[in-house]
């Protein structure tokens, strides 16, 4: 029987998040508070509600200049240990309150070293914040585990250094690596040495590919660099011919599906960057029907004014997804996490399946 979940049920079901940027998920009031503490005076407003609206409207404007400006403000207030730890702590708590039981949150340490912090300082402060947030969540009755992904910026030259820190911190709360930043003009293969090193060290990594740029970035990420997951990967739809009575997959799309390479899809964010005109036309509907390993994610919760609950609500409305479909993408994500297999299985068996079963039984 098809069970279409209510908004309240969506809020309560267990969720898994693989693609979320720490510097894209700050509370507006936190930005204002830290800005006042450090003397940062460039915010467009000091009213929290107005600031939240400004972020969303800037990212919806179609102006790349305005979109990038939003991150200049969040990065500016994350240049101290205290600021980073606060942001990470609130991130973990906010996700837990939204029903997220497991999250891999990514950030580029090099962005937060403008005032003298080292890369290791940034990582230590971030991990400390996640642990505090987990503890806060437990005190409120929520269960969440937050792990870190470290990003290298593809337009810069510090990816090798960041990759080494992924290995150094892999048993301390860092589970993988990613490259972020502009895709066009900065192909994944520019960072080939970092990926070769990570594979040599048996370390996990995902790669932003197939978001703003097309199929060549996906091909490079997988076939040259060895990506285990695709950050977004939404442009794989370009290799599927929808003109006939049945969809026809090209060779790359077939490879991605056959190898069960996870797609870290972020519908609301993808709309802002032009992947589709509206949620009903977003490729996630087709990709899920074709049984790609689809996962559902937030990307930048502040910039998109989104949450995992909101993303689930949107796909339920757009594609008539039922509780079983939401459970499928949640288990897809947990299967694709970078923690050891026994830990993944434990979360699926002890939290996710019982959580969905209890909702279905209502």
Describe the secondary-structure layout.
Elements: H1 7-12, E1 15-21, H2 28-38, H3 48-60, H4 64-76, H5 81-97, E2 100-107, H6 119-139, E3 145-153, H7 159-168, E4 174-180, H8 192-200, E5 206-209, H9 215-224, E6 229-232, E7 240-241, E8 248-249, H10 251-258, E9 263-265, H11 267-272, H12 284-289, E10 294-296, H13 308-319, H14 323-335, H15 341-360
Parallel strand pairs: 1-2, 2-3, 3-4, 5-6, 6-9, 9-10
Antiparallel strand pairs: 7-8
Architecture overview:
With 362 residues, this protein is α/β, with parallel strands linked by helices. The protein has a single domain, classed as TIM Barrel (Alpha-Beta Barrel), CATH 3.20.20. It contains 15 helices and 10 strands. The strands form 3 sheets. Strands 1-2-3-4 form a 4-stranded parallel β-sheet, sandwiched between helices. A 4-stranded parallel β-sheet has the order 5-6-9-10. Strands 7-8 form a two-stranded antiparallel sheet. Helix 6 (119-139) links the parallel strand 2 and strand 3.
């Amino acid at each position: 029987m098809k069970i279409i979940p209510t908004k309240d049920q969506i809020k309560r079901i267990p969720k898994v998040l693989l693609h979320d940027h720490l510097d894209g998920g700050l509370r507006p009031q936190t930005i204002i508070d830290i800005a006042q503490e450090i003397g940062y005076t460039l915010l467009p407003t000091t009213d929290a509600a107005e600031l939240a609206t400004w972020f969303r409207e800037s990212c919806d404007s179609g102006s790349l200049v305005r979109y990038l400006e939003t991150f200049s403000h969040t990065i500016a207030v994350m240049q101290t240990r205290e600021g980073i730890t606060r942001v990470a702590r609130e991130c973990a708590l906010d996700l837990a309150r939204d029903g997220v039981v497991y999250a891999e949150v990514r950030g580029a340490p090099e962005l937060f070293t403008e005032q003298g912090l080292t890369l290791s300082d940034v990582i230590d402060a971030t991990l400390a914040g996640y642990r505090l947030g987990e503890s806060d969540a437990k005190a409120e009755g929520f269960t969440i585990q937050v792990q870190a992904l470290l990003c290298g910026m593809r337009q810069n030259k510090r990816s090798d250094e960041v990759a080494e820190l992924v290995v150094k911190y892999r048993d301390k709360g860092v589970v993988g690596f990613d490259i972020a930043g502009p895709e066009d003009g900065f192909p994944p293969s520019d960072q080939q040495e970092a990926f070769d090193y990570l594979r040599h060290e048996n370390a996990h990594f995902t790669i932003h590919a197939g978001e703003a740029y097309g199929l060549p970035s996906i091909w490079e990420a997988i076939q040259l660099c060895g990506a285990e997951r695709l950050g977004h990967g939404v442009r794989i739809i370009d290799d599927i011919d929808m003109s006939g009575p049945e969809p026809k997959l090209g060779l790359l799309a077939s490879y991605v599906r056959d190898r069960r390479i996870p797609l870290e899809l972020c519908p609301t964010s993808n709309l802002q960057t032009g992947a589709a005109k509206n949620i009903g036309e977003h490729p996630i509907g087709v990709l899920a029907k074709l049984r790609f390993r689809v996962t559902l994610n937030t990307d930048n919760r502040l910039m998109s004014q989104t949450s995992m609950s909101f993303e689930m609500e949107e796909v339920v409305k757009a594609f008539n997804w039922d509780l079983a479909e939401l459970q499928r993408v949640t288990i897809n994500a947990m299967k694709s996490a970078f923690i050891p297999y026994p830990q993944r299985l434990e979360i699926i068996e002890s939290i996710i399946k019982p959580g969905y079963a209890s909702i279905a039984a209502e």
